[in-house]
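Hey team,

Sharing the ABC-type quaternary amine transporter run so nobody has to redo it. Sequence (311 residues) first:
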Amino acid sequence: MSIQANGVTKRFGAFVALDDVDLDVHAGALTALLGPSGGGKSTLLRVIGGLETPDAGEVSIAGRDMTRVPAHERNVGFVFQHYAAFQHLSVFRNVAFGLEIRRRPKAEVRRRVNELLELVHLEELADRKPAQLSGGQRQRMALARALAAEPSVLLLDEPFGALDTKVRRELRGWLRALHDEVHVTTVFVTHDQEEALEVADEIVVVNNGKVEQVGSPSDLYDKPANDFVMEFMGPVTRLGGRLVRPHDVQVTAAHVDGAVPGRVARLQRIGFEVRADVTTADGDLWVQLTRGQADTLELTPGSDVWLRAVV
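Structure output:
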């Protein structure tokens, strides 16, 4: 199901959370709303889901105007960062809950829940209570519960935000694989650039209540629309007054055309990467190198080098 937002504005008192926002989410896509805290991305998600009503503009799902339709009539599934599971119910009953209140036949409920538990790799934990699950397992249960009623749209508001880095990495790969299997139109909110770049088909960068840029992960990283998007989408440094990626700075021991002189102030080895802080006449910058490159150049603090952007 496609999603369209046209001229959506939302205020909370004097604060403008969304300012004339347009958005077009393609049917079956996995779309990330990415931006800093307070930028408007969660408000936009809540407007799409019917948890907030816009002050102006329209929201449609599959071509139907949903602007004033209550959330429970939109056939939308929600997953939040802190998912309120029923602690006294088993994993099976938590996933089944939405189907049971819709009075679906017991055989249908059993079949659907078993399918979903297998899909999210929790079939062996069906009888456990939420407190007996890890954080990652609880979020997989939350996704199964959201998918149980076969929603046309799935909305996730920083679903992995409360988890540690290792589990987040595991779950975002799992989310991508799950989406490729179920193909439900999905919109998720995150402030984690790496998460958006790894998981999403399309990224919507939201800042100060406005959409800064929409595009594929490659487009936003390689062809940012402005300095804000470039700085938000990954590491940057400044060479000759221009923002560049630290890995797009060539370092040589001898002068080459277009290069500026500099002196290495500090070296840091971080795994396979070497970070070089370099002082130039225009100011300080940092450069990202491989260990092999740094070793070949025989870099040490105090080394004289030449620098130029290669993009």
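Residues 236-309 form a domain with the OB fold (Dihydrolipoamide Acetyltransferase, E2P) fold (CATH 2.40.50.140).

Ping me if you want the raw files.
A.
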